[in-house]
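Proteins fold reproducibly. Consider a sample protein:
=====
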Amino acid sequence: MTKVDPMLDTTTARPAPVPTAAPPPRRSLIIAAPWPYHPGCGIGGGVLCFQLLERLAARYAIHFIAFDQVPHDAEGGRRALSRLCASVTLLPVPAASGGLADKGGQFTQVLLRQPREVRGMASPAMARAIAERAATTDADAVLLQFPQMAQYAGDCGDLPVVIDTQDVALVSRFREWRCATGRGRRLARLVAWLAWLRYELHWYARADGLLALSDNDQGVLRSFFPDTPCLLSPVAAEIRPRAPGRGRDGYAAFIGNFDHAPNRDALEWLLAAIWPAVRRELPEMELHIAGPGIPAFAAEHVAAGVVVRGFVESLDDFYGDARVALVPYRFGGGTKIKALDAMARFCPVVATPIGAEGLGVTPGVEMEVAIDAASFAASVVRVSGSDALATRLAEAAQQHLARHFSWDSKVRRLSAMLEEIGAARRARSGRVVREGVGG
């Protein structure tokens, strides 16, 4: 009689599978943002945040909470987020204040520690949604993205709070005030800066961790919050292959979300002080302006070769057909993602020092950096007129990005920070439980 080995499957005569332990449950992360960003939202910071979320979703179960507002393809954004996240909660946008209430807010924003942009996103529904999710999810942390969301740091229960500052307003709004002209405008900008200063000092102090995009922002945050971990988490990019056939008939490219004050100011300065000097040297050159919220005054310059594109579907095409990318910022904080986007797509860049901030470039090596309107215009003419210079800048820029702005490095360092503060919270909770039982 043949004996049957109990470890064999009698049907296949192969070893039966050995039972394995269930994998440990995935850690989770709560992310709260001003809008449901996605690849086609038309806002550089939003696209960057979505690319980060894609990579974090491979490590965490993401619970995403945002206001239901997005400039382009809202339904596509919901689908993209739903594919990646364990849950997606979208809330109505708070009702906008206006009339006397808005005018009154101009005077009280410093006293109340509530800048106008923050007041526009103050929502009891958002506070409740974050609090309920924090109470029912054993997350490593709550990640609040963009300064406007820092006001919800007190609604996260006992979960650690990490604030992704993106743009440290106490830096950028100070620069905006310094650049303002006219007594009324300077006063308004000073009030806005003071309001942001009080707001960020209050809410960032309640965070367990801060993320900064640039060395400058990190230095400022560390000086104000020396006891709070502050991670330099620069923008990251995927290098694109060189677009074939870029010739001297390419245009100058400027893209941005023009509801954002630094972008609008940059466009005003570009059209008034820089572009006329470029056209005197290159009368056939065109300036293509893309992005949401382009102000009406841009269309007044059509005769000077200005083309208003509005929202563009593909940055690859926009920069692939361009001769040079312009980043003419006079104020702002963080890192200018448009510069990174152009560099990643083999498009040479001309920027101001603030436009180049956070990228660690050497002027004249990875990009041209100009300090005033005359030198900016001269750089645009020089790059546009020399294939050799344009190619040298673009090649050096891509090599620089590959060395210093990889996604692997960004995600690895951020995950380590989140896991560290999550472990510290669990250790504190364990001590509290043990002390309660023993007492």
User: Anything to note?
Assistant: The first strand starts at residue 8 and ends at 9. The domain at 251-404 is CATH 3.40.50.2000 (Rossmann fold). The longest helix spans residues 407-438.
